[in-house]
């Protein structure tokens, strides 16, 4: 009898409708900043809460290991759901308030319909803004769901998303700059030039050593031009003498 | 005797032709190295900040070697036509000294080019771009040079980071210390900018919507000019040295055959 009574109790309060939708990170277009160190981008919940035209739709952000402890009856805009108290004193916070008018159905083709979680940096420490959409405090992993409230009563919720892991940044000291190695071109260039230079030096040494001796010069010695001048001189006028004797 | 005379004249002609080519290549080398030293792509601050700008030293040596080659080629032509032993000996010794300097320049340019990997530029960009408190004047000078060069590079070449905008996400940086991740996943210069230098769509840029930010890395824009510079100095110098080697061997042979 007791289990039957327990089963009937939520039905008696009207209960929270569980919509068969799980929030997910935007798939099209492919975004470079889909997850960064402190933000992530969700697809808007279009055509999900169509039956609840008067409801306020809130986004609930929790850590993967605190998601189960979130109570749907927590009111938004209070300290129990304040961004500033997450994650040290509250298991989840509520932000990105919207109505069905913000999420028209059907989604026009070609429109980019996204929600950037973590984009408001001005209210990080402002306790007067508990619904701040502030940058997430760590790499996660986080789980989110949408909750529709009619006044202060939760009327519908989506399922929890898959765990969302944010990016962690490494230190630039981990970049190794010394494993370049030498390219083949540089090695070829160095070795060929060294060999050529060595041959030239050997040739110079050979030149100077054999300066004195004539050993290599034998067949190819040649005279310098204009070194010897040949002067023409008159012969003995032998052709004139017979003419003189006659 | 006549045949030997012809051989001599042919050898002289070849050596004179060889020296003319050396002279012209010397002038070309000087002109090319002056072009590189003038830094037409504005990448010198990046190389200066790596504290190893050997590529520029190689280009400076190339300027003077080019002049020396031109002057020595004229000396060589005169020495060959006059068949003067002293002149040719001076020519050979000075040419060997010039050969040694040019060899140093080629090897330096080729070795330094191997040193300039993407990781070097990545580490330098992360550590210096928009660094807030420089340690001393030298540090401040290098930081300003790196920041201005990167801004100009990213805007003119429509690129971001060394390998892509994810460089700013994968690593912490001096930029990240002063600009929070939510407002500045990457610098504003990575956004598509209009004529006034203002991002066309800031939210689109922060989200990373294709078309509103630069998705390519800048490494190609850096390595292109640096490669041209290094190969121009190293391989053109190598070609000149190979030609000079042949001419010098011929001159040594010619010298040893001159009567004195």
Overall tally of structural domains of chain B = 2
- The oligomeric state of the chains shown is heterodimer
**Shape assignment of chain B:** elongated
Q: Uncertain spans of chain B, ≥5 residues at pLDDT below 50?
A: none
Overall SS class of chain B:
mainly alpha
By DSSP (H or I, 4+ residues per run), the number of helices of chain B equals: 10
State the end-to-end CA separation of chain A.
178 Å
Strand order of the largest sheet of chain A: 1-7-6-3-4
Sheet-strand content of chain B, in percent, reads under 5%
Helix percentage of chain B: over 70%
Instruction: Report the strand count of chain A.
Output: 7
Helix content of chain A: 10-25%
Mean pLDDT reading of chain B = 91
Summarize the main sheet of chain B: none
Biggest beta-sheet profile of chain A: 5 strands, mixed
Rg of chain A to the nearest angstrom?
A: 47 Å
Low-confidence stretches of chain A: 215-220
How far apart are the first and last residues' alpha carbons of chain B, in Å?
19 Å
Structure characterization notes:
- Chain B: Its main location: membrane.
- Chain B: It is a multi-pass membrane protein.
- Chain A is an alpha+beta fold and 246 residues long.
- Chain A has a domain at 19-163.
- Helix content of chain A is 17%, strand content 16%.
- Chain A contains 3 helices and 7 strands; from the N terminus they run H-E-E-E-E-E-E-E-H-H.
- Chain A has helices spanning 2-12, 184-209, 241-245, and strands at residues 17-18, 40-43, 56-63, 92-99, 114-117, 142-150, 153-157.
- In chain A, the strands form 2 sheets. Chain A has a 5-stranded mixed sheet, with no helix packed on it. A two-stranded antiparallel ribbon of chain A has the order 2-5.
- In chain A, strand 6 and strand 7 form a beta hairpin.
- Chain A starts with a helix and ends with a helix.
- In chain B, helix 1 runs antiparallel to helix 3, helix 1 (2-37) runs antiparallel to helix 10 and helix 4 (85-115) runs antiparallel to helix 10 (219-257).
- Chain B has helices spanning 2-37, 44-49, 54-82, 85-115, 118-128, 137-157, 166-170, 174-178, 202-207, 219-257.
- The radius of gyration of chain B is 26 Å and the shape is elongated.
- Chain B folds into 2 domains: 1-116 and 226-257; 118-132 and 142-219, Orthogonal Bundle (Cd81 Antigen, Extracellular Domain, Chain: A), CATH 1.10.1450.
- Chain B has 260 residues and is an all-alpha fold.
- At the A-B interface, helix 2 of A face helix 1, helix 4, helix 5, helix 7 and helix 9 of B.
């Amino acid at each position: 009898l007791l289990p039957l009574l327990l089963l009937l109790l939520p039905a008696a309060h009207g209960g929270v409708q569980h919509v068969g939708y799980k929030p997910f990170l935007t798939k099209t277009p492919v975004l470079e900043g889909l997850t960064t160190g402190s933000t992530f981008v969700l697809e808007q919940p279009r055509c999900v809460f169509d039956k609840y035209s008067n409801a306020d739709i809130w986004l609930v952000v929790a850590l993967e290991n605190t998601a189960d402890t979130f109570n749907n009856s927590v009111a938004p805009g209070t300290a129990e759901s304040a961004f500033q108290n997450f994650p040290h004193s509250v298991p989840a916070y509520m932000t990105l308030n919207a109505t069905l008018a913000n999420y028209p159905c059907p989604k026009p083709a070609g429109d980019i319909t996204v929600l950037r979680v973590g984009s408001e940096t001005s209210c990080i420490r402002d306790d007067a803004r508990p619904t701040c959409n502030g940058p997430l405090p760590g790499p996660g992993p986080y789980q989110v769901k949408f909750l529709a409230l009619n006044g202060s009563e939760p009327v519908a919720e989506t399922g929890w998303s898959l765990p969302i892991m944010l990016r962690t940044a490494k230190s630039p000291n981990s970049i190794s700059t010394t494993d370049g190695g030498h390219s083949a071109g540089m090695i070829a260039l160095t070795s060929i030039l060294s060999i050529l230079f060595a041959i030239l030096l050997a040739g110079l040494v050979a030149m100077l050593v054999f300066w004195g001796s004539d050993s290599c010069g034998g067949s190819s010695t040649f005279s310098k031009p204009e070194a010897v001048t040949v002067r023409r001189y008159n012969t003995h006028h032998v052709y004139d003498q017979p003419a003189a004797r006659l | 005797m006549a045949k030997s005379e012809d051989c001599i004249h042919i050898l002289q002609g070849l050596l004179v032709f060889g020296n003319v080519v050396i002279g012209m290549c010397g002038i070309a080398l000087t002109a090319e190295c002056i072009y590189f030293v003038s830094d037409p792509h504005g990448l010198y601050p990046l190389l200066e900040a790596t504290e190893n700008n050997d590529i520029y030293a190689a280009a400076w040596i190339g300027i003077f070697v080019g002049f020396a080659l031109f002057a020595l080629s004229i000396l060589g032509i005169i020495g060959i036509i006059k068949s003067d032993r002293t002149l040719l000996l001076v020519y050979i010794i000075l040419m060997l000294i010039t050969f040694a300097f040019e060899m140093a320049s080629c090897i330096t340019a080729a070795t330094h080019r191997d040193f300039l990997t993407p990781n070097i530029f990545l580490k330098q960009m992360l550590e210096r771009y928009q660094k807030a408190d420089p340690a001393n004047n030298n540090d401040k000078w290098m930081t300003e040079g790196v920041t201005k060069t990167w801004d100009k590079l990213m805007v003119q070449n429509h690129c971001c980071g060394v390998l892509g905008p994810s460089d700013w996400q994968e690593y912490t940086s001096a930029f990240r210390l002063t600009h929070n991740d939510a407002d500045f996943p990457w610098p504003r210069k990575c956004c598509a900018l209009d004529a006034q230098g203002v991002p066309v769509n800031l939210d689109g840029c922060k989200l990373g919507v294709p078309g509103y930010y630069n998705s390519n890395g800048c490494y190609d824009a850096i390595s292109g000019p640096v490669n041209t510079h290094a190969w121009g100095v190293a391989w053109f110098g190598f070609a000149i040295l190979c030609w000079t080697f042949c001419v010098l061997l011929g001159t040594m042979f010619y010298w040893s055959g001159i009567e004195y």
